[in-house]
Design brief:
It comes from Medicago truncatula (Barrel medic). The protein is α/β, with parallel strands linked by helices and 371 residues long. The protein has one domain: Rossmann fold, CATH 3.40.50. Helices cover 38% and strands 7% of the residues. It has 12 helices and 6 strands. The protein has a 6-stranded mixed β-sheet. Helix 2 links the parallel strand 1 and strand 2. It starts with a helix and ends with a helix.
């Protein structure tokens, strides 16, 4: 009986989500452009030609995506793909690796699978594009936008209306802090100290973004890292979440939310920051009505041509660490339109894009430095 109730709950949620999305996919976008920074939760193809093992441009990845495997680490759309649709964009934001021409005026996706805030994160997988390098790529794009709009002032006004989405930090734990055999960070820092070090580095990167025109920011917190199928299998917890991996993520989220308050006070007139909490107060046994939440739909590392599950909408996880499109759809809807300050703080994305921004700072010197 409980399983039947959960199945109907998922069906109702997905029907509602599909109808909700349809309201926004037609018409003018709510912001002129969207810039995406992050890791495999947002990557749409930037890793495809990099010398790294962190790739997903092969089947069964993309099995439910219209264009097939593209480098997205899920079966269909990522959460930011769906947010892009909710914002009214006609097309998904292209990856930096494939960007050309006037497409830059709609935005760029810089996210790189396995990337972290720290440059050494995931170095064992090969070369990935850390957050700092993603910002360097963004400076190049901003310079091109300034050229296309025939001047710094016009570019500054244009960029102030855009949305900047930052979803990164998971790999700084999964492919760094939680792997003492390869990285020394867990011997150097306590969980509290490590979270603070990450937040300080993230803060510097956000200030750089501000210096080159960013004014509306979405900062996404970490999920429950100890509730991924990978963590559950590695620690042999018989389906239960791993508390020692969840606790550091929650410390990071607490500090990230505090950073949002700090920046909103610091830049009260000319910038707005929001925090998105993806932990959802759920555990691996009872996750948003999903029938299966502690094993992946695509097993065995989701190797090329692996046969995934058929009932993908009932699974919370696509592979050992990445959510299914069904999970992404729920997270995206909540991020975009939520009346719960525990999930989006101090407002949701829908309200953020409606905020009026006063331009006060000039970033001519920043563009000159990156040219």
């Amino acid at each position: 009986m409980a399983c039947e109730i959960k199945t109907w709950l998922m069906v109702l949620i997905l029907i509602f989500s599909a109808n909700y999305l349809q309201q926004f996919v037609n018409g003018k976008s709510q912001v002129p452009c969207l810039f995406i920074f992050g890791d495999s939760l947002s990557d749409s193809g930037n890793n495809n030609n990099l010398p790294t093992s962190a790739k997903s441009n092969y089947k069964p990845y993309g099995i439910d995506f219209p264009m097939g495997p593209t480098g997205r680490f899920t079966n269909g759309r990522t959460s930011i793909d769906i947010i892009t649709q909710l914002l009214g964009f006609e097309k998904f934001i292209p990856p930096f690796a494939n960007i050309n021409g006037s497409d830059i005026l709609k935005g760029v996706n810089y996210a790189s699978g396995a990337a972290g805030i720290r440059i050494e994160t995931s170095i064992t997988t090969g070369f990935v594009i850390s957050l700092g390098l993603q910002l360097e790529n963004h400076k190049v794009i901003v310079s091109r936008i300034a050229s296309r709009l025939e001047g710094i002032d016009k570019a500054q006004e244009y960029l102030s209306k855009c949305l900047y989405y930052v979803n990164i930090g998971s790999n700084d734990y999964i492919n760094n802090y939680f792997r003492p055999q390869f990285y020394p960070t867990s011997q150097i820092y306590s969980p509290e100290q490590y979270a603070e070090a990450l937040i300080q580095e993230l803060s510097l990167n956000l200030l750089t973004l501000h210096d080159i025109g960013a004014r509306k920011y979405v900062l996404v917190g970490l999920g429950l890292l100890g509730c991924t199928p990978s963590a559950i299998f590695t620690h042999g917890t018989n389906g239960s979440c791993v508390d020692e991996e969840n606790a550091p993520a929650l410390i990071f989220n607490f500090k990230l939310k505090f950073l949002v308050d700090h920046f909103n006070n610091k830049f009260s007139a000319d910038s707005k920051f929001i925090f998105v909490n993806t932990t959802l107060e759920s555990d691996a046994q009872n996750s948003d009505g999903f029938l299966v939440s502690n094993v992946p739909c695509c097993p065995s590392g989701c190797i090329p041509d692996e046969r995934p599950c058929y009932n993908r909408s009932e699974y919370a996880f696509w592979d050992e660490v990445h959510p299914t499109e069904a999970s992404n759809q729920l997270y995206a809807i909540r991020s975009y339109n939520s009346h719960n300050s525990g999930f989006t703080y101090p407002m949701d994305i829908k309200n953020l894009v409606e905020q009026e921004i006063e331009m006060e700072l000039d970033f001519t010197s920043q563009l000159s430095a990156s040219s």
